[in-house]
Amino acid sequence: MTHVTAQTGAEDSLAPVLPSSPAQEERAARFIEVRGLEKTFAGDGAPVQALRGLDLVVPEGSFLGVMGQSGSGKSTFLAVLGGLSHPSAGEVRVDGIDLYGLPGERLADFRREYLGFVFQSFNLVPYLTALENVLLPLAVKRMPAAEKRARAIEVLGRVGLADRSRHLPGKLSGGEQERVAIARALVNDPPLLLADEPTGALDSETTTEVMELFAELHREGNTIVMVTHNLEIRRYFDRTVVLKDGRLEGGPPAGEAG
Amino acid sequence: MTLRSIAVASLRRRKARAAFLVAGLLIGVATVVTLLTLARSMSGDAEASLESFGANIVITPKAQDVALTYGGIDVGGVRVGDQGLTMADLERVRAIPARESIAVVAPELVGPVQVKGSRVLLMGVDTRAQFELKRWWSIGAGRPPENGRELIAGARAAEVLGLRMGDYVRIRGERFTVTGTLAPTGGQDDELLVAELGAVQRLLDRPGELTLIEVAAAYSGAPVDRVVQQLSAALPGAKVSAVREAVASRLHAVDRFKGFSLVIVGIVVGIEILVVFLTMMGSVSERTTEIGVFRAIGFRRAQITRLVLLEAVAAGLVAGVLGYAAGMAASYAVLPVVAEGAPVAWAPLLGLAAVVTAALTGALAALYPALRAGRLDPTEALRAL
Which of B57, B158, B269, B320 could disulfide-pair with B153, CB 3.0 to 4.6 Å? Predict the structure, then answer.
């Protein structure tokens, strides 16, 4: 994956260019950059501080595991990182782009062009077939229909579901649905994959299958950030950080952690 | 895969919700189509009945200062000359801009003649036009005159002069065959002798002249007042009068029914909008997570709004087509009950309007739910995140 964005003064361009300069190599090294990230929700009573001053730098091509107990702020962190939830304070940069400095609906464009989401409960659209679900991110892209279809079929084949393309999600097993969700996240060839508890609803055998797929994507150069509380899959990450009460505790690389 | 195909897939594969949405619109469209078709059919039937009453416009010479009563014997007051009507005026009548609205033009020349020692009125007419205009004329015995040597007699004239079918009469030296007698009408026509216009003009030595022109303007065409206006402009030397009572009664009856229909249509469309609104609001709430997914994978707010609107428009198009068919079927079932014998008025434009209106109504009713869907916070929508 070599998506790097030319950063103009206005930071309003999402057009990728090839990395060629030391500055761009530096940006690849700081592919994800989080500074002083805070997120506070207005609860029924006192405000709830879900994230408390997070700082994090993730190089391009990493497979980062974000772990922590329920309520530690992992999913909130992923939502903010994915441009879905504005932080109360701080800054998030992906490939040099200040996400929350993007004007208007450019944040939606950013998600479409830069991100692939994999959700815990798959969140496939129930009335669309596997192929149509994979095609969804391309629905609002200007490209020939035949090209969209060919791309979706290719990605479905890559996750081993070429023969299930016409099935509705209700007719697929949990593992198959997860793989369709991964194919949907991959169809745009995004520089960054974000996964929220992707194995949370799977048995151990299917979990292994799905994690092997993520590992393969990582080996191909994809940058992946995965939120999980499943210690069993920690070995797939090349770096793990732990969130506790909205603070980043950090963590050694997976290999060192054993 | 496009927004449109997503909308269509949503309707096709969520049949229960789509059926409810389509049914809500369909019932409305069918009701509107039925009411409007009934209104059109009934007013068409009423117009046909009114037209059977005869002329609704009478053209007389402006200078004429004697009532156009051709009953009795003395019509000496009928003045002709420079201000009189001529055959050339018929062409002017047929050339007005609203000529499509003119159903019948019936020229007449009336003058007194001596027959068997009695003075009677002889009327020259265009036989076909006259019978078309005066639907109440029927031949009691015989047939209408077919050439310049034939005439028919009104019931009273035939009785007084002792004329029967096949008799010959001499008028100013010319011999005419009586081809029939008119059935009694109870009016002035009973006292007439009626012959071909050309023959009467020759006999009365008034070539090309006319006493009056009667015009039947179709009620379904341009308003009668406009036809009168155009005729007055085309014939500056003539007096053009509308038979107001017929026009007024027609307008009154038809307009009241149309007004009633419009009120019902308004109520039905209001209910229709409410049904679609509630259905789409329910749909948006039910699909919160799905909308969150769309937002997460890069759909813009406007694209989510368009997606919801497209569904409503697609449902509206289906409901429009089915509703029009159902409305026409209902019209066939109901019309014989409310207006026996009236033909159902088919209007392809109503079909087009039904489909377009159903689609627009669907879009209008779904506008707020669609905007609400577009404004959904993706993290609220994706509770998992």
Answer: B158
